[in-house]
């Protein structure tokens, strides 16, 4: 795998936000997944974003 595997929390937050708008590429998904396995705070942010997206989708129905 080329490129950097480790990403910062700032980069993880950007990817969490971007995955709401577009599918992430395989490398982006892998780096985000790896970061979320070790960073409790970013995992929490991701769960909050998922909850908000699901809530908005329910409102649209």
Percent of residues in beta strands: under 5%
Span between N and C termini? 41 Å
Number of domains: 1
- How would you characterize the largest beta sheet? none
Number of strands: 0
Structural class: mainly alpha
- Could you tell me the radius of gyration in angstroms? 13 Å
Helices and strands, in N-to-C order? HHH
User: Given the C-alpha coordinates, what overall shape results?
Assistant: globular
Description:
The chain is built from three helices and no strands. With 61 residues, it is mostly helical. The longest helix has 21 residues. It is globular, with a radius of gyration of 13 Å. The protein starts with 8 loop residues before the first helix and ends with a helix. The mean pLDDT is 92.
What does this entry show, briefly?
The protein is mainly alpha-helical and 61 residues long. It has helices spanning 9-21, 26-38, 40-60.
Task: Please render the helix and strand layout as text.
Elements: H1 9-21, H2 26-38, H3 40-60
Helix pairs in contact: 1-2, 1-3, 2-3
Supply the key terms.
61 residues; mainly alpha; 77% helix
